[in-house]
């Protein structure tokens, strides 16, 4: 038997073909060929069309895969009958798939090669029930992963929606309360000015208006007082107003104190207003309150606008697949959206390199990565600790690092954390897809890298994103 030939006895000696009949072995011999490869020769490359199914006759082979730009040996074997190549050719959904890895000869090796469509025909003809079972199993697992993937995204969206609703509720409620109080204070001011105007001559009214303007302006930039200082000032002003016969003195004193108005200013108001002093004090107090309420409404409305804007930036629903983006914008919008998780005891430290160039990327998908990493960090710390968000340049990439002060990730499971469905959370608390999705977005979608370094009190997830993307990716993107 020559090196580039085989016979039924050699094929029957392989565990893969040991149960085949003579006719089936003859069919394989008619449709297959034997090839010899020198040590180090590449049988096929990763990504090439999966056209052939290979079976080892003798020698040693190994499977290699490019992961994150590095060649990794997946497995090696010198066992005759070991196989590689178009291993899923019989599955309808995989007819046109590419080789998932490369095959290389470690030593001089002989391989039996058969075309993928012939391999598929043989399996479907000789083992129809097994093929149906395997086909259903493969498709079932694929559909299950898709469904769980969608569920993971829906759960994340639900959590974000709940958090956003909570964040919007606070300024919204504050705005309603301020508006209700504003209506009351406007009525108070209206009644006070109606009583005050007839009681003052032109010069006194002019002087009182000047004092009121001074009070309003001082209220814009009040001094910072300690709790003790503020309490002493309120007591002093309340006593002075009460002595002047002003009703509700103890209610109005905190308004003047918070504006930084002292007893000397109160005395000037009382002297100018004379017998109309109670109405003058009530009118100015109402005016200061109105200014404060307007500021509160403006702040609340601004907070709502900020949240809506952050959500718009976060989702990027109006943007194309790939854009020139600043990673800091996405990080900040994500921190705003997740504010409800951070305010309970997480100290956020921003260590940004604002000189970083913009990158070509899909902002919405990267925001999903930031969300997964930040939420994991907060949960790892139990909601209390220091979250550090750092950006820097590393060669031709932008580095984004999310660090936490949690207990760390044990070394024995660090290599598995990006695997689908792997989770360290309790049953029902996680699907194990957050980091898998993040990995696919960063590595497959953006041709970057994601890695982890962890020890107790210092866990850092580092995302590397190339500044420039291939032209084909910029134009159309790639499917996850």
Word description of this protein:
- With 480 residues, this protein is α+β, with helices and mostly antiparallel strands.
- 51% of the residues lie in helices and 19% in strands.
- The chain has 15 helices and 15 strands.
- It has helices at residues 8-12, 22-31, 116-126, 128-196, 202-220, 227-243, 249-258, 263-273, 277-315, 327-337, 339-342, 363-380, 411-414, 434-445, 471-476, and strands spanning 32-37, 42-44, 52-58, 61-67, 70-77, 83-85, 102-105, 109-115, 323-325, 346-351, 359-361, 385-394, 397-404, 449-455, 458-466.
- The strands form 4 sheets. The protein has a 5-stranded mixed beta sheet. It has a 4-stranded antiparallel beta sheet with strand order 1-8-3-6. A 4-stranded antiparallel beta sheet has the order 2-7-4-5, with no helix packed on it.
- A hairpin with a 2-residue loop joins strand 12 (385-394) and strand 13.
- The longest helix is centred in the middle third of the chain and has 69 residues, at 128-196.
- It is rod-shaped and about 120 Å long.
- The relative contact order is 0.07.
- Mean pLDDT is 80; it is low at 426-432 and 472-480.
């Amino acid at each position: 038997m020559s090196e580039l030939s085989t016979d039924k006895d050699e094929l029957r000696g392989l565990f893969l073909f040991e149960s085949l009949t003579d006719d089936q072995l003859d069919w394989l011999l008619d449709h297959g060929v034997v090839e010899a490869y020198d040590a180090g020769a590449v049988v096929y490359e990763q990504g090439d069309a999966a056209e052939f199914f290979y079976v080892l006759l003798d020698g040693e082979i190994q499977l290699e895969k490019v992961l994150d730009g590095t060649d990794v040996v997946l497995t090696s074997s010198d066992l005759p009958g070991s196989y590689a190549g178009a291993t899923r050719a019989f599955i309808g959904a995989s007819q046109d798939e590419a080789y998932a890895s490369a095959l290389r000869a470690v030593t001089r090796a002989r391989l039996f090669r058969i075309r993928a469509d012939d391999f598929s025909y043989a399996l479907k003809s000789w083992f129809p029930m097994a093929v149906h079972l395997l086909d259903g199993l493969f498709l079932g697992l694929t559909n299950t992963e898709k469904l769980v993937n969608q569920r993971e995204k829906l759960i994340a969206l639900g959590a974000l929606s709940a958090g956003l609703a909570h964040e919007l509720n606070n300024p919204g409620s504050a705005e309603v309360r301020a508006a209700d109080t504003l209506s009351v204070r406007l009525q108070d001011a209206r009644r006070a000015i109606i009583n005050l105007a007839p009681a003052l001559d032109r010069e006194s009214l002019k002087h009182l208006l000047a004092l009121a303007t001074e009070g309003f302006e001082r209220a814009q930039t009040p001094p910072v007082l300690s709790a003790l200082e503020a309490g002493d000032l309120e007591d002093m002003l309340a006593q002075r107003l009460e002595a002047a016969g002003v009703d509700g003195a103890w209610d109005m004193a905190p308004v003047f104190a918070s504006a930084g108005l002292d007893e000397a200013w109160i005395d000037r108001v009382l002297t100018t207003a004379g017998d109309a002093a109670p109405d003058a004090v009530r009118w100015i107090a109402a005016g200061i309150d109105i200014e404060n309420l307007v500021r509160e409404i403006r702040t609340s409305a601004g907070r709502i606008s900020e949240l809506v804007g952050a959500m718009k930036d976060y989702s990027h629903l109006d943007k194309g697949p790939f854009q020139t983006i600043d990673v800091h914008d996405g990080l900040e919008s994500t921190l705003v959206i997740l504010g409800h998780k951070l305010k309970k005891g997480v100290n956020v430290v921003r260590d940004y390199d604002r000189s970083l160039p913009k990158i070509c990327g899909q902002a919405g998908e990267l925001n999903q990565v930031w969300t997964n990493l930040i939420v994991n960090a907060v949960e790892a710390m139990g909601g209390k600790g220091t979250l550090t968000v750092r950006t820097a340049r590393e060669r031709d990439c932008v580095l984004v690092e999310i660090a936490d002060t949690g207990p760390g990730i044990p070394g024995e499971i660090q290599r598995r954390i990006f695997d689908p469905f792997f989770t360290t959370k309790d049953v029902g608390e996680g699907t194990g897809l957050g980091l898998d999705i993040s990995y696919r977005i960063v590595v497959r979608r953006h041709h970057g890298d994601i890695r982890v370094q962890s020890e107790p009190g210092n866990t850092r997830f580092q995302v590397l994103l190339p500044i420039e993307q291939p032209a084909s990716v910029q134009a159309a993107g790639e499917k996850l």
